[in-house]
Amino acid sequence: MNFDYTDEQRRWRELAREFAEGEISPVAAKLDREQKFPYEIVRKMCDLGLMGLTIPEEYGGSGGDFVGYNLALEEICRADTSVGITMEAHVSLGCAPIVDFGTPEQKEHYLGEIVQGGRKLWAFGLTEPNAGTDAGGTETTAELDGGEWVINGEKKWITNGGTDITGGVTAIAKTGERENGKPELTAIIIEQEREGFTRGPGYEKTGWRASDQRQLYFRDVRVPESNTLGERGNGFRQFLRTLDAGRVAVGALSVGLAQACFEEALSRAKERRQFGRAISEFQGIQFKLADMAMEIELARGMVLKAAWLKDKGRPFGREASMAKVFASETAKRAADQAVQIWGGEGFMETSNVARYWRQVKINEIGEGTSEINRQIIARSLLREESGEEVKARMTAQ
Ligand SMILES: Cc1cc2nc3c(=O)[nH]c(=O)nc-3n(C[C@H](O)[C@H](O)[C@H](O)COP(=O)(O)OP(=O)(O)OC[C@H]3O[C@@H](n4cnc5c(N)ncnc54)[C@H](O)[C@@H]3O)c2cc1C
């Protein structure tokens, strides 16, 4: 057993930390207040290789592993989760499906364009007005006509869906019905400039205010059949696998935010004096700090274990859901306790902890709510695991 990071993982962590402390932390509150998308910061993150961190080098990416990516993401989110979700949605939801399921031509073309040519962002369109947790209930349709998909429908809350540097979206559409009556779902790559593809304005949000989410509309949008991501009819399997990995990353995002809450709470506890002494001298405050630190340590361990399993090619879906639920709930408790330790000042928008408190809730909702992740965990515990799965797990533990 070895808890040490590799040199490369450590390098990603340090690079992200240095960049986050130097370039993101100083402007995070302003970006949030002004609800501005941080183009300059994202451009620099592209230059540093952070936005292509897990994309193989042969396509111009950084070729980093999943542990290294999650370590870097935690550091970015310790500074700001708006920037963090921009990175996460691009890497885990935008690029990963193309890396994992794209044809060699698609990888060459789109990944090349994303990381090298245009420094573009890519989005993942699953959620719709009537298909949230029940993403299989997708109503967007795609029909073949003369060698082209004709796409109609809409997607909701799509991160990176409408920035000036968005290259396109990989959207899940219903392409038919299976013999068992279930919908056939297919992932289709839709470039930003396709006719009939339009975007709504940004939303008024409680958190992630400097990130970009849009409603996307498809009205008779035509793309070549070759824009099918991998194989037709594989959309359901593809989005489940994409979300498994995305959940680990939302776990890392939550750990970063929880760590920021802890650090703010610790420094305030040492500074603030009441009854003639620092409030950190009161046991009531010390126990809060101890609980926060313990939970963060545990959440980080869960995230990194799930990431490590993925890097080893072993089953990691259960661990991903566990890490996501525990880390997001840890962050929620940490934000709550940080405000409590800050007292009235923590309720003021002049404090960082007030912003963290607003931002933390979405972690329990995006990329699978806590309820649905608990269901996934329970189902995996209750189901008869295949011999293969048991073996893989035994080797992992
Ligand atoms: C800021 C933001 C960014 C987002 N980015 C993206 C993106 O980039 N791409 C994308 O595709 N989507 C994105 N989403 C959508 C997000 O993934 C969904 O919000 C999430 O999956 C939950 O769906 P919903 O909000 O429709 O909730 P609903 O499905 O309406 O659920 C409402 C409540 O019912 C509960 N519930 C539902 N079904 C069950 C059940 N079977 N058992 C128990 N409880 C249940 C849920 O857990 C929840 O508590 C984003 C959302 C937001 C707010």
Automatic annotation (TrEMBL):
PROSITE patterns: ACYL_COA_DH_1. The keyword rRNA-binding does not apply. GO terms for molecular function: acyl-CoA dehydrogenase activity; flavin adenine dinucleotide binding. The keyword Flavoprotein applies. InterPro entries: Acyl-CoA_DH_CS, Acyl-CoA_Oxase/DH_mid-dom, Acyl-CoA_Oxase/DH_mid-dom_sf, AcylCo_DH-like_C, AcylCo_DH/oxidase_C, AcylCoA_DH/ox_N, AcylCoA_DH/ox_N_sf, AcylCoA_DH/oxidase_NM_dom_sf. Keywords: FAD, Flavoprotein, Oxidoreductase. Belongs to the acyl-CoA dehydrogenase family. This is Acyl-CoA dehydrogenase. It comes from Rubrobacter radiotolerans.
